[in-house]
Amino acid sequence: MDLLIILTYTAICVVIFKAFKIPLNKWSVPTAVLGGVFILSAILMVMNYNHPYAKYGKEVFVNIPIVPQISGTVAEVNVIANKKVKKGDILFSLQNEEQKITLQRTEAALAEAKNAVFQKDEALLAAIAIVAKAKANEERAQTTYQRYNDAHKNGGTNSPFTQQQVDTKKKLFESAQASTNAAKADARRLRLITESKFLGENTQVAQLQANRDKAKLDLARTIIRAPVDGTPTQIAIRPGVRASSLPLRPVMSFIPDEKRRFAAAFWQNSLLRLEVGIDAEVILDAVPGHVFTGKVVDVLPAMSEGEIQANGSLLPSSMLMRHGFVIAIIELDEDLNDYNLPLGVQGQAATLNYEHDILHVSLVRRILLRMMSWLKYVYPIK
After folding, report:
1. DSSP for residue 355
2. Cβ atoms within 10 A of the Cβ of 212, count?
3. Residue ranges in the chain modelled with pLDDT below 50
4. What is the predicted pLDDT for the residue at 199?
5. Pairing state of beta strands 72-77 and 201-202?
6. Is 345 in contact with 256 (CB distance < 8 Å)?
7. DSSP assignments along 133-151, one per residue
8. Buried (b) or exposed (e) across 184-197, using 16+ Cβ within 10 A?
9. How far, in Å, are 103, 116, 134, 220 from residue 213 at the CA level?
10. Considering only CA atoms, which of 322, 381, 319 is closest in space to residue 348?
11. Given 3-state DSSP classes, what are the helix, strand and coil percentages for the chain, each rounded to the nearest 5?
């Protein structure tokens, strides 16, 4: 861009010397040269300070790696590469015989557990009845023992019951007490089983319901769907390919439909005038002769050239020698899809900070940017 300014000034000087027939002498030539030095230096300094220029820029986009949540063999691919799909459309499916069998097994176990709950409820009722029966037997044995014991004590030598008969009735009473305690214990055990609940459901049934839901989820996960509206691209999977749930092994790339944005790399001294909300202009190698207008919507708060991580390695000095560029995100007013441009096109950008442009050199920056855009018909210069 600086070269374009010098060449333009040189061309203007040549036209002036020719048009006005100014002689080339020791006064005219130094005046033109020194005047150009001062004028161009002032223009360049003010222009570069107020209107930063990004020599390198590129459209950035997100690529969603498609990784199935369960491993399996691809059964069918349901999309065509580079054709748009809607959220929820099927991308591909996995063979699911194993998941179907697992689901049937869990549903059968759940049905058995529910039936067992009913059986345990009935068993509890039966245990309660047994407790009542044992209690009645205990009370009858207690009454009989008490009658025999009282008659033996009160009758003395004339007692109608012997001591052996009293002891026998006592043993029968104690046996009835033990039977009652056993029946009560069994009833308490069945009550604990039947009343053990989680979220209002029997705990065993709840566990099997969770297993059933997990089996349903695994079966549903054999069908991989589009996460959002977008375009699957570079589809290499085919029926029979083994798809793994490992996050490091995606099987498909998916480009979501989003607002297309342009990222430009500016020198760090551009931060003095690089502000969110200012106007910007972008030229693309793919569209010569056209300038895209837009605005700076974000300036990234960090530069990767200064990033370090805790990995046990020493920081090399070469890392400190790398120059870091400030990345600004520019949102264009026009839709690049109207130009049938693939994602990731490159170009250059310039920001226009009119607030501090006292000398109105933004006009020079815009003219130079358009000259560079015209030159792209011949060669995409930087």
Report:
1. G
2. 20
3. none
4. 55
5. unpaired
6. no
7. HHHHHHHHHHHHHHHHHHH
8. bebbeebeebbeee
9. 8, 20, 44, 10
10. 381
11. 50, 20, 30
pLDDT (tens digit per residue) in 55-72: 999 999 999 999 998 999
CA distance 50 to 293: 18
Helix axes 28-50, 362-375, angle to 10 degrees: 100
Neighbour tally for 376: CB within 10 Å: 19
**CA–CA distance, 349 with 271 (Å, rounded to integer):** 15
Pairing between β-strand 53-60 and β-strand 197-198 as defined by DSSP bridges: unpaired
Q: Which residues contact 325 (CB under 8 A, 6 or more apart)?
A: 56, 265, 266, 267, 268, 303, 305
Residue 308 CB burial class (10 angstroms; 0-12, 13-18, ≥19) = exposed
Which of 89, 73, 85, 68 has its CA nearest to residue 250?
A: 68
Report how far residue 124's alpha carbon sits from residue 197's, in angstroms, rounded to the nearest whole number: 16
Six-digit token pair at 52? 């930063």
SS3 call for 330: strand
> In sequence order, which residues have a C-beta less than 8 Å from that of residue 161 and are 6 or more positions away?
148, 151, 152, 155
Angle at 4 between CA 348 and CA 327, to 5 degrees: 25
Task: Using CB atoms within 10 Å of the CB of residue 328, give its burial: 0 to 12 exposed, 13 to 18 middle, 19+ buried.
Answer: buried
Amino acid at 18: K
Classify the C-alpha dihedral 309-311-316-319 as positive or negative: negative
Q: What is the pLDDT of residue 151?
A: 74
**Backbone CA torsion sign across 98, 100, 104, 109:** positive
- Token pair 């009858």 in the structure block, residue: 140
The string of DSSP letters for 253-316 reads EEEE----EEEEEE-GGGGGT--TT-EEEEEETTEEEEEEEEEEEEE-S--GGG----SSPPPP
The token duo for 277 is: 């909300």
What b/e string do you get for 73-110 counting C-beta neighbours within 10 Å, with b at 16 or more?
A: ebbebebeeeeebeeeeebbbbebeebeebbeebbebb
CB-CB contact of 311 with 253 (8 Å)? no
